[in-house]
Predict the structure.
Amino acid sequence: MKEVKEDWSSIYRREKINIKKEIEEINLFGGNINKVLLEYFKPGDIILEAGCGTGKFCFWLEERGIRVVGIDIVPGIIKVAANYARDAGFSLHL
């Protein structure tokens, strides 16, 4: 598990993270993902996304009235996502 955490941590440190763009890309390229998510999750539902990374699906779902708690093994990326959530006015928990 330590190696997994270190691998993902190094990826996030190297990459320029743009969460807003990631969320927009779900709408552009999500296709079947969008349909599946909205088939199973409805406004008012509360879900847990384990391995949420930047939280892009958490944010996307919250925009549709679905409450989300996101967790990830990489503390640094959770901090980035939590800062984005705060700055963008999202209420989800990371």
Q: What stands out?
A: Residues 75-88 form the longest helix (14 residues). Residues 2-88 form a domain with the Rossmann fold fold (CATH 3.40.50.150).
